[in-house]
Design brief:
The protein is α/β, with parallel strands linked by helices and 423 residues long. It is built from twelve helices and 17 strands. Strand 5 and strand 6 form a beta hairpin. Helix 3 packs across helix 5, helix 8 crosses helix 9 and helix 9 crosses helix 10. GO terms for molecular function: acid-amino acid ligase activity.
């Protein structure tokens, strides 16, 4: 749970920037927290949310998001649409793309259709909260029949803001994709900065495009290693930070817990009443290094996006990169290399020349990678396309509401993603 101070700061900031955001029943939630009701603001707020808390605690992620979407669609006067992850908002809207006729029928009849992952007793309790609404069902059908660009603003014309729990790393891909299509014209607000399960900061500037977080000194004990690290690194405290510099976070979340390097690198963007304001830069803990080249997740993602820009008509949905050693014999007898699994929209296949563009971008962006490729100590990158919805199914199979790592290091994850490879 969030510290009470953090929840109050969030709600006050939201109300100041978007005056109608705290309207009763004006917020809909799209977030999966299996086995427990979830309230992003830190405590149950039944007067704020139109979404039953039980809907987010279903055993199936897909079922939870569909049920929450149905309750959101009932409320035409929504002011806030909130998701734990940008990927959850994306997947819920993808379910709208494919399942809107069934959702419209459920709205018209005031029912909740049976589906996998929705226990009958829970379905009965949730269905008791519904009532037939033929007018709203007809509006849903009419808007979806027009297409899905800007669909969120058309379905909820009074919506002011989209709140997402995480908006950096690969989650930024989903924010960008939603801004360009379904959520065109709406601002995104990422209110909290969390690391290693601890809340560390709050975003007091919801209308700015790049999230910045005020670090709150009494929520956890934070230390900072200056980047780049020296031979004998010494941590500094909050009062010793310099504006414009980058630091790796060292965290002791609660008294008595272990002190650890969180693997997060932050940039000090300024100060607010003597407390530092930071931007998330990268995760040092998520890096590719088959020969010690150390390419971080964020920098790899930038190279991948640049390569996708060279594939006419393609849009990147999501990706995962695997070091070939994890694949074992199935990666072949070549030198250690990267195996990249990509989900695209707008392009069904790639030529060999197009597939090579990613390896070429990596060589251009990382001289050390180019050197290893020239020597032959790193083999050619291998690119695999996965089917539509593969990463949504992967998130379901993982059984975790946390952001999914894009640099793969666990064999269990590898087995799951391999089952979705189509070419």
């Amino acid at each position: 749970p969030l510290p009470t101070q953090g929840s109050l700061l969030y709600l006050d900031t939201l109300r100041a920037a978007f005056p109608q955001a705290l309207a009763p029943r004006g917020t809909a939630l799209l977030s999966w927290a299996p086995g427990r009701p979830y309230a992003p603001a830190g405590w149950p707020l039944p007067t704020l949310y139109c979404t039953p808390s039980e809907a987010g605690a279903l055993p199936s992620r897909a079922a939870a998001l569909r049920v929450q979407l149905l309750f959101a669609l009932r409320a035409r006067a929504l002011r806030v649409l909130e998701a734990g992850l940008a990927a959850e908002l994306h997947d819920a809207l993808a379910a709208l793309h494919t399942g809107w006729p069934g959702l419209a029928q459920d709205l018209a009849l005031g029912r909740l259709s049976p589906q996998p992952g929705l226990p009958e007793d829970v379905r009965g309790r949730l269905q008791a909260l519904l009532a037939p609404d033929t007018v709203r069902a007809a509006e849903l059908q009419a808007e979806c029949a027009r297409g899905f660009e800007g669909i969120v603003q058309r379905l909820w014309p009074q919506l002011e803001v989209l709140v997402v729990g995480t908006a950096h790393g690969a989650e930024q891909l989903y924010c960008d994709a939603l801004r360009q299509a379904d959520c065109k014209g709406l601002p995104f607000y990422c209110p909290f900065y969390q690391a290693a399960g601890a809340l560390l900061g709050v975003n007091l500037w919801p209308e700015e495009p790049v999230p910045r977080f005020l670090l709150c000194p009494d929520w956890a004990f934070c230390e900072f290693l200056p980047c780049p690290a020296k031979e004998e690194p010494r941590t500094v405290l909050l009062g010793e930070l310099w504006e414009g510099r980058e630091y790796e976070l060292v965290l002791t979340a609660r008294p008595g817990e272990y002190r650890c390097r969180a693997g997060e690198v932050l940039r000090v963007a300024g100060f607010h009443k003597q407390c530092p304001v930071v931007e998330h830069v990268r995760r040092e803990s998520q890096a590719l290094s088959v020969r010690g080249e150390s390419i971080t997740e964020e920098r790899f993602c930038r190279s991948l996006c640049r390569a996708v820009g060279m594939w006419p008509g393609a849009r990147l949905v999501d990706y995962i990169c695997v070091e070939s050693a994890l694949l074992g014999a199935s990666s072949g007898a070549s030198a250690p290399h990267y195996e990249v699994f990509v989900e695209l929209r707008g392009l069904r296949d790639l030529s060999e020349g197009q597939r090579y563009k990613l390896d070429q971008c990596l060589q251009e962006d990382f001289p050390i990678y180019k050197s290893f490729r020239f020597k032959g100590s790193i083999g050619p990158l291998r690119l695999h396309l996965v089917g539509a919805g593969a990463f949504a199914r992967l998130r379901e199979a993982l059984g975790s509401p946390l952001p999914m790592p894009r640099v793969l290091r666990e064999e269990r994850l590898l087995q799951l993603i391999q089952s979705t490879v189509v070419s």
